[in-house]
Amino acid sequence: MSLSTKNKWNRKTSLWIIILAGADLLSKYVIFERGLEVPFIHPVINGFGAWSLPIATRILVAASIIITILLVVLYRKNYMSHRSFIFLFSGALGNLYDRLIFEGVRDRIQIGEFPVFNIADILITIGVLLLIMEYRKQSRAWRH
After folding, report:
1. What is the arithmetic mean of pLDDT over 111-140?
2. Predicted structure pTM score
3. What percent of the chain has pLDDT above 70?
4. Residue range 4-15: average pLDDT?
5. Active-site annotation holder among 25, 118, 121, 130
6. Domain of residue 109, residue span
């Protein structure tokens, strides 16, 4: 499914990716390196996959690199919008950086019994939700 507009990687795209991925990495630095204590913040390095699934770090790094490259390819071929790409790519970069440097993702936000997560996870979730909304809108347009 190709979107109607041509996707171009430009300065604005790069700036948003730097801001969003930077916010994730900066918040991790403040929590993990500076020891900022805040309610519902529980720093932990998750050496596993999403929801702490037991998957080897090497496999997760390889999968993260492949997914990040795939995001760029899909974006350049117009299979996703500018907005969804920026959120997905920024979140993927934040978690990929952690996996490469710390051999796990630095998670820290704990709300109730929900698994611990981070800003990169929020960015990825927003990107997926935008992508779903875009495809639903596009599929409705095709039916009519």
Report:
1. 88
2. 0.83
3. 91
4. 77
5. 121
6. 11-143
Whole-number Å distance between alpha carbons of 138 and 107:
34
Residue 137 has pLDDT above 70, yes or no: yes
121 has catalytic annotation: yes
115: left (phi over 0), alpha (psi -120 to 50) or beta: beta
What's the pLDDT score for residue 109? Answer: 84
pLDDT at 120: 95
> 20, 80, 96, 107: which is the annotated catalytic residue?
107
Return the closest-CA partner of residue 105 out of 97, 113, 5, 89: 97
Could you tell me if residue 19 is inside a domain? yes
On whether residue 1 sits in a domain, the answer given is no
Told to judge if 24 belongs to the known catalytic residues of this protein, a careful annotator would answer no
Burial of 93 (0-12, 13-18, 19+ CB in 10 A): buried
Question: Coil, strand or helix: which one is 116?
Answer: coil
Tally of domains in the chain:
1
Residue 86: inside a domain, yes or no? yes
